[in-house]
Structure formats: C-alpha cells, structure tokens
Amino acid sequence: DAKTTQPPSMDCAEGRAANLPCNHSTISGNEYVYWYRQIHSQGPQYIIHGLKNNETNEMASLIITEDRKSSTLILPHATLRDTAVYYCIVRVARFGNEKLTFGTGTRLTIIP
Amino acid sequence: DAGVTQSPTHLIKTRGQQVTLRCSPKSGHDTVSWYQQALGQGPQFIFQYYEEEERQRGNFPDRFSGHQFPNYSSELNVNALLLGDSALYLCASSLTQATNEKLFFGSGTQLSVL
Known about the structure:
The complex is a heterodimer of chains A (112) and B (114).
Chain A: E1 9-13, E2 18-23, E3 31-38, E4 45-50, E5 55-56, E6 61-64, E7 70-75, E8 84-92, E9 106-111
Parallel strand pairs in A: 1-9
Antiparallel strand pairs in A: 2-7, 3-4, 3-8, 5-6, 6-7, 8-9
Chain B: E1 5-7, E2 10-13, E3 19-24, E4 31-37, E5 44-50, E6 53-57, E7 64-68, E8 74-78, E9 87-94, E10 104-105, E11 109-113
Parallel strand pairs in B: 2-11
Antiparallel strand pairs in B: 1-3, 3-8, 4-5, 4-9, 5-6, 7-8, 9-10, 9-11
C-alpha cells in the first residue's frame, strides 16, 4: 500500500501557483519524497525529490515540513500543460531499490 | 537521444492467450522495471531486471515473467491471460549506480483482453 495521502483532485487558475499537498506521516528517516506526474496517455514523468531540505528545480519547488510528515509541491506559474495526475511517493534510496509505490494521486486541472 | 521506447503501443488478446511486450531503456541505463496500471489507478510494480536477472518483484503471480537481454532491453511475458490483465503496461529505466536515480518511463503498451 502507498504510504502517502493526497487529495483526489484540485483546480488551479492558469498563471497562478499550484500547491499540491501530500501527507506521509509514517515516513522513515531514510526515505525520500518523490513527485511524479502523468499526463493523459503518457508514462509518469519525474518532477523533483528531496529528503528534508526544500528543493527547487526548473519544473517545481518541494517544501518538506520540519518533522517530514508532510510536503507540498509548488508549480509556480501553472499552465494548461500542467494538467495531469500528480503522484507523491516515498522511497528508500538504496542501491538496487528502484521500486516506486504509487497511490491514486491528485488530479490537477488548470483552468484557463 | 531516444528515451524509453515500448512496443507495441496497443494490443488485443483473448483470454488464455500469451503476450510479450518489449522495452528498450534510455541510452546509458542498465536497469528496467515494469509496472501495470489499471484504469483510474496508479501504476503497480511488477518486477525489475538488472544484469539479466530479476532483482525485485511485486505482488504478481508467476504468470508474469520477464527477461533482460545483454543490451539491457527487456521483455514482459504474461501467460494464460485473464480479463483482469487488461491494463496499461509501463516500462521504466534507470541507472542502478545512482541511489537517488530518477526513473524514466515509456508511454506504455495498452493491453486489452477480451
């Protein structure tokens, strides 16, 4: 079973910041938080990951709470192409462990 | 640089038949994982291959088997197909030396079992 809880759906206006929450209250000290998204009819796409510090890349920012029990993915200026299902995943980063356990994710719809 | 490629893109089979799906990993990657995604659900891990051997396996029956070739490409075989095997089958590749390595997914093979 997935170790994360996400809202099933969210809407966001085009051009605004999209903030997607994720609860992972049982996360272990050696587990990272990963975010992937899946646009219709495509395979999942990596967005970002982090352990305990906030992270930013060209796609998004990841904010992890100090107790690591929850996190927020931020898309700073959402576009219509950001409409997708977003998955929050916790994973032990260990040699030989590429397994990802997906939940049902958050369906994000960007409104024009 | 080609990403992960899968073939075929769509496939229709009948119950009891066998199917083989194929995957070529991203250039430079040595590990291939397979996932099954039922309609409306997140992908579920089937198994992973590294150095031509199955390294991890999810909760799938042994009707699901695989193979990895010396060029790192991989096949997923499903025997005695059931209606419930209808799903999108995704292949993902990665480089096993990097512990935080992200996975790159193909666009999948849509399997319909009638």
